[in-house]
């Protein structure tokens, strides 16, 4: 009889799970090359475990590796593995993950100088924090008054942190972190340790001064000149980073979106009735924030603008306990600012002009702006 023919055992087909993102092998290798440390990725078979990342996490990791923010990569993998983020989430900014939005609501505000929020938008900010919302506060300038990189600006920054300690009702160390936004701007994010309710963000452009022309130590650069197109760009005081007006507009939108802002506050724009006589930097910051609102990139229903210096001509409307809380925070800041030089509530009320401003707060919704230009 002929020998029986053996039937070959078929090799089982291994079907790899479908990828949850569109990362290519080359992109994964590029991330590994830029940052290293992706030890879980085998370059010979790229995609695992990164093929299991959701699309937003994959996009975030590509951004962090391309911008040399490599310390965020393991954080992204761990966060995505927890599956706590909603399906369909879109990566819009590194701040989504470095400084996440608050589920109870977040007030995002934009100011020219380190004390503007304490003077013109308090008690609004303090009330928001007391109601359970979080504060994310962005400052455009170094607040250097023409001194450039100096102890004056550094002391003002220290005073600002101390004032927010009073506002949040706790004290302790703060931690700084450098963050590069998708707008291309690099800023300093500072937060009190163990308290996610408050974040301050510093860009550090030159103070433009009351004449709106800047100062010799900082190259005669100013926000008013940038807004009007007299200069094409500015440079940060400490690092010399180049900043354009388009980048500032994009940064405003990025912060509002990444924090899921429930409310946006800023200076009254220079085109609005009631801004005449205000600091030129204030008027310019208001314009910068209003521009993307006008373009429909930010919901105008959540945007309000605080009147600046001209509030002194209006009736005092902050008194009693709200005034006392406002003064307590401001006095702690002012102890670090030699221009103001007051150390207690009563002393700050007696400082020329500041006493009038501190007893007032006039906030105008975007829909109620009266445009005079």
Secondary structure: elements and pairs:
Blueprint lengths: L24 H11 L19 H12 L6 H9 L13 H4 L7 E6 L4 H5 L3 H7 L3 E8 L9 H18 L5 E7 L5 E7 L5 E8 L17 H6 L5 E2 L6 E2 L1 H14 L4 E5 L12 H15 L8 E4 L13 H15 L10 H5 L4 H5 L4 E3 L8
Parallel strand pairs: 1-2, 1-8, 2-5, 8-9
Antiparallel strand pairs: 3-4, 4-5, 6-7, 9-10
Helix pairs in contact: 1-2, 2-3, 7-11, 9-10
How would you describe what is shown here?
It is a single chain. The protein has helices spanning 25-35, 55-66, 73-81, 95-98, 116-120, 124-130, 151-168, 223-228, 245-258, 280-294, 320-334, 345-349, 354-358, and strands spanning 106-111, 134-141, 174-180, 186-192, 198-205, 234-235, 242-243, 263-267, 303-306, 363-365. By secondary structure, the protein is α/β, with parallel strands linked by helices. The strands form two sheets. Strands 3-4-5-2-1-8-9-10 form an eight-stranded mixed sheet, sandwiched between helices. Helix 1 (25-35) crosses helix 2 (55-66) and helix 7 (151-168) runs antiparallel to helix 11 (320-334). The radius of gyration is 25 Å and the shape is globular. The model is unreliable at 39-47 (pLDDT under 50).
């Amino acid at each position: 009889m002929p020998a029986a023919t053996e039937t070959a055992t078929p090799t089982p087909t291994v079907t790899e799970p479908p990828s949850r993102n569109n990362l290519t092998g080359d992109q994964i290798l590029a991330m590994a090359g830029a940052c290293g440390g992706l030890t879980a990725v085998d370059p010979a078979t790229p995609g695992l475990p990164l093929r299991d990342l959701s699309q937003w996490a994959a996009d975030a990791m590509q951004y962090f590796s391309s911008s040399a923010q490599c310390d965020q990569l393991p954080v992204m993998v761990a966060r995505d593995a927890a599956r706590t983020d909603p399906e369909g989430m879109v990566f819009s900014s590194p701040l989504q993950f470095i400084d996440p939005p608050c589920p109870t609501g977040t007030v995002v505000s934009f100011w020219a100088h380190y004390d503007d929020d304490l003077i013109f938008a308090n008690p609004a900010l303090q009330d928001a924090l007391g109601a359970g919302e979080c504060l994310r506060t962005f400052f455009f300038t170094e607040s250097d008054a023409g001194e450039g990189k100096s102890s004056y600006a550094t002391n003002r920054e220290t005073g600002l942190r101390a004032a927010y300690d009073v506002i949040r009702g706790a004290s302790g160390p703060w931690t700084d972190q450098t963050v590069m936004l998708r707008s291309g701007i690099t800023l300093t994010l500072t937060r009190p340790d163990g308290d996610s309710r408050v974040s301050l963000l510093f860009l550090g452009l030159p103070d433009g001064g009351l004449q709106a022309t800047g100062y010799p130590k900082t190259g005669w650069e100013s926000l008013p000149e940038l807004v009007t197109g007299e200069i094409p760009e500015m440079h940060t005081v400490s690092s010399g980073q180049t900043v354009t007006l388009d980048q500032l507009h994009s940064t405003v939108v990025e912060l509002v979106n990444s924090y899921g802002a429930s409310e946006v506050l800023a200076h009254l724009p220079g085109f609005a009735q009631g801004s005449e006589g205000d600091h030129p930097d204030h008027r310019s910051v208001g314009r910068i924030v209003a521009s993307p609102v006008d373009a429909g990139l930010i919901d105008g229903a959540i945007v309000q603008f605080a009147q600046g210096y001209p509030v002194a001509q209006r009736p005092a409307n902050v008194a009693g306990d709200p005034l006392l809380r406002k003064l307590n925070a401001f006095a702690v800041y002012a102890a670090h600012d030699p221009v103001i030089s007051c150390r207690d509530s009563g002393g700050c009320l007696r400082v020329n002009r500041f006493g009038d401003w501190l007893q007032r707060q006039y906030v105008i919704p975007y829909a109620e702006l009266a445009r005079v230009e």
